[in-house]
């Protein structure tokens, strides 16, 4: 199976937008709970790699997508590089 790469400009890989109302309402007490599976496993880099075969790259911003040539210009810290897809 081909491994996918997912860029995130921040470091929240699965911020669970759908569960946010439950947190605001107070049904879910800790924000951390939203970032875990129903079995309590954190949805972090390790989780996505092992269960979804998706490699996450945090603090990595896609700045330009060249769809014709299938290239993404990416910025990570102060480094810029090109990813092909
Ligand atoms: C309150 C609320 C309730 C919802 N309820 C439901 C529901 O009940 N059912 C349902 O199906 N959907 C629901 N949704 C919608 C669902 O959460 C979204 O469809 C889903 O989060 C979209 O996922 P996504 O990964 O495409 O985008 P997002 O979850 O928005 O993730 C995008 C990520 O990309 C990052 N990013 C943005 N720009 C760049 C860049 N240039 N380079 C690198 N990273 C970048 C962002 O920081 C973010 O981490 C809800 C959303 C909200 C806010």
Which short descriptors sum up this protein?
3 helices, single chain, two-stranded parallel ribbon, alpha+beta, binds flavin-adenine dinucleotide, 85 residues
Please outline what is shown here.
The chain is of the alpha+beta class and 85 residues long. Helices cover 21% and strands 32% of the residues.
What would your notes on this structure say?
This protein starts with a strand and ends with a strand. The protein has 85 residues and is of the alpha+beta class. The mean pLDDT is 93. 21% of the residues lie in helices and 32% in strands. The protein is elongated, with a radius of gyration of 16 Å. It binds flavin-adenine dinucleotide. Flavin-adenine dinucleotide binds at residues 7-10, 12, 17-18, 20-21, 61-62.
Shape: elongated
Tell me the number of structural domains.
1
Biggest β-sheet: strands ordered side by side in the sheet: 3-4-5
According to CATH, what is the topology?
A: FAD/NAD(P)-binding domain
SS strand fraction: 25-35%
CATH architecture verdict: 3-Layer(bba) Sandwich
Main CATH class? Alpha Beta
* Amino-to-carboxy terminus distance: 16 Å
Q: What is the CA-atom radius of gyration, in angstroms?
A: 16 Å
| Helix-strand topology string | EHHHEEEE
- Secondary-structure-based class equals alpha+beta
Portion in helices: 10-25%
Low-pLDDT runs of 5+ residues are none
- Please count the beta strands (DSSP E, at least 2 residues each): 5
Sheet with the most strands, sense and barrel status: 3 strands, antiparallel
Helices and strands in order:
Layout: E1 4-7, H1 20-25, H2 31-34, H3 45-52, E2 54-57, E3 60-66, E4 71-76, E5 79-84
Parallel strand pairs: 1-2
Antiparallel strand pairs: 3-4, 4-5
The structure holds flavin-adenine dinucleotide.
């Amino acid at each position: 199976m081909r491994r996918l790469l997912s860029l995130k400009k921040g470091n929240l890989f699965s911020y669970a937008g759908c569960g946010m109302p439950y947190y605001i309402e107070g049904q879910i007490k800790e924000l951390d709970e939203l970032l875990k599976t129903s079995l309590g496993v954190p949805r972090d880099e390790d989780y996505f790699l092992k269960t979804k075969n998706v490699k996450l790259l945090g603090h990595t911003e896609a700045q330009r997508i060249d769809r014709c040539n299938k290239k993404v210009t990416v910025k990570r810290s102060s480094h810029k590089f090109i990813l092909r897809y």
